[in-house]
Amino acid sequence: MLKKCFSNKKFVVGFIILVPLIIVMIFGNFLVPNDPYALDTVNMLKNSSAKYPLGTDEYGRCILTRLILGIRPSMMVALGGTAISFAGGTLLGVAAGYLEGRIGAVIMRGIDIILCFPPILLAMIIAGLWGAGVINLMLVIGLLYIPHFSRVAYSSTLQVRKMEYVESDLSIGAAPSAIMWKAIFPNIISVLIVQVSTTISNAILLESGLSFLGLGVQPPTPSWGQMIGSARGYLNVNVMYLFWPAVCLCLTILAVNLMGDAIRDILDPKLNNSF
């Protein structure tokens, strides 16, 4: 499996971009050149210099330092929210697909209702009611993407449910819970892994959008979306203030999407010869 991953060019490109970002996220406190909260009123909105390699923001704070630390809340929210949605969505989807009947119909109709609303609109409503913060954002994103995992798990379960090994377990009187998690779940995990990569990139983008609107990570804690939101008012003074967090955000989402596409290609034999 590992050999197939590193023979896929998309996976390698995504890996090369993503691994340094993860290292920065973990060891960011040891890599920052300046205090992320220190104000320097003499050097506000300055271009790059020896002391501030990427310049300063409207309060004279080091942009490079805040970029390094800004990845942490975005990735924490994305990974935590994806874990919640994976667990909740898989549980509901597998249960609805296996049980079918009235219970399955009720679960899936509730999922369909949530899917009718744009994610950013629901996120704004829930974040507005619960308040901002990393933990609340994890819960918001986790709840928003449960329907996506549920639909994938549901459709995959319907396909697997009629397979011979499932019928065999039924014939020997295995409990429904044992069939769902020992016979069905291991055989749909590959599809769910692809959904995980898609959800992580969407969650990063959603968290950045909420922070941009002031409903995400709150100042003075740095966040890429928050930095983009602050920088839009200073484009005429220092365009690089907007450029750097936007580039970091784009590269992160690109890397996650590339790795997700590569994993899909590897897990699907029909796509093994793709780029």
TrEMBL record:
Q: What organism does the record attribute this protein to?
A: Clostridium symbiosum (strain WAL-14163)
Q: What is this protein called?
A: AgaC protein
Q: Can you tell me where the transmembrane regions are?
A: 12-32, 75-99, 111-131, 241-260
Q: Give the InterPro entries listed for this entry.
A: BP-dependent_transpt_permease, MetI-like, MetI-like_sf, OppC_N
Task: Kindly list the places in or outside the cell where this protein is found, as annotated in its UniProt entry.
Answer: Cell membrane
Alphabetized, the UniProt keywords read: Cell membrane, Membrane, Transmembrane, Transmembrane helix, Transport
Family membership noted in the UniProt record? Belongs to the binding-protein-dependent transport system permease family.
The residue ranges of the ABC transmembrane type-1 domain are 71-260
Q: How does it sit in the membrane?
A: Multi-pass membrane protein
Q: What is the lineage of its organism?
A: Bacteria, Bacillati, Bacillota, Clostridia, Lachnospirales
GO CC, alphabetical: plasma membrane
According to its UniProt entry, the protein's GO biological process terms are:
transmembrane transport
